Amino acid sequence: MSAAEVIPGAEPFSAAGGATGVLVLHGFTGNPSSMRDLAEAFADADYTVELPRLPGHGTTIDDMLTTGWDDWSSAAESAYDDLAGRCERVVVVGLSMGGSLACWLATRHSEIAGLVCINPAVAPSDDMRNAVAYADTPLAPLLTLFAAAEVVESELSRITSPMLLFTSPEDHVVPPADSDILAAAVAGPVERVSCDRSYHVATLDFDADMIIERSVEFVARLGQPAR
C-alpha cells in the first residue's frame, strides 16, 4: 500500500513523552482523524502516544474487505506491546470498535493502568450496519466484529483496570445499552460520563472538548510513575 492511498488526515500519529503511554484506537470504518485531537491532547500533556491506523482503514473499501477482527486485534496488541516496552504504564483509549479492542486488550493484560471507552461496541447488533464511513458498509469484516464481540462480552468480568466510560444517549450506531452492559460486567471501578450533545462519533461532536478534558484528567489521576 502506498502512502498516497491513505485518505488525507487518516495517517497514524505518534508522540514521544513521559513514562506513561496512551494507546488510542479508532472505530470500525473510521480512521485516526476521529481520534487525532484527543491523541494530540495527550501528547500536549507529556504522555507518550500511539494512534495507529488499523488494517484496512483509512484507504478504500477494497482494502477493508481483506481484513477482519484478527487483523485489527493483532495490530492493537502489537501497538500495545510496543508502547508497553517503552513506558512504565499504559492507558488504552478507544472509540466504538476501538473501545471493543481496548476491552479485549484489558481482558488479556491486567497490567493496563486504565481504560477510556467512548461509545464502545461490546455487544454489537444489526444497528451497527449504520456505521458507514465508506459508500457501503463492508459486511464480511463487520461479521468478524460481531463474532469477536460475543467472546469479548463473555470475558468482561476479567477487566480490573479503572475505566472512564463516555456514552451518547442518542447513538444511532452502537446502542447506549452496550455501555450499561460493560459497566455492569467489569470488575474494576467505572466512572461514567454522558455525552448529551453528541451522536456516535462523540470525539468529533459537541462534547469533544469535554471528552478531551475529562480523559486527560482521568489519566493524570491514575498517577505518574517514577521516572
Structure report:
With 227 residues, the chain is of the alpha/beta class. It has one domain: Rossmann fold. It is built from 7 helices and 7 strands, in the order ββαβααβαβαβαβα. Strands 1-3-2-4-5-6-7 form a 7-stranded mixed sheet, with helices on both faces. β4, α4 and β5 form a beta-alpha-beta unit. α1 packs across α7 and α3 crosses α4. It is globular. The N and C termini lie far apart (39 Å).
Widest beta sheet: strand line-up: 1-3-2-4-5-6-7
- Tally of strands: 7
What order do the helices and strands follow? Answer: EEHEHHEHEHEHEH
In the CATH scheme, the class would be Alpha Beta
Radius of gyration: 16 Å
CATH topology: the name is Rossmann fold
| Total number of domains | 1
Oligomer: single chain
Task: Give the fraction of residues assigned to helices.
Answer: 25-40%
Mean pLDDT: 89
Q: What proportion of the residues form beta strands (DSSP E)?
A: 15-25%
Assigned CATH superfamily: Alpha/Beta hydrolase fold, catalytic domain
Task: Kindly summarize this structure in a few lines.
With 227 residues, the chain is an alpha/beta fold. The protein has helices at 36-44, 61-65, 69-86, 97-108, 139-154, 177-185, 208-221; strands spanning 13-15, 20-25, 48-51, 89-95, 114-118, 163-167, 190-194. Strands 1-3-2-4-5-6-7 form a 7-stranded mixed beta sheet, with helices on both faces.
Keywords:
single chain; 227 residues; alpha/beta; Rossmann fold; 37% helix; 15% strand
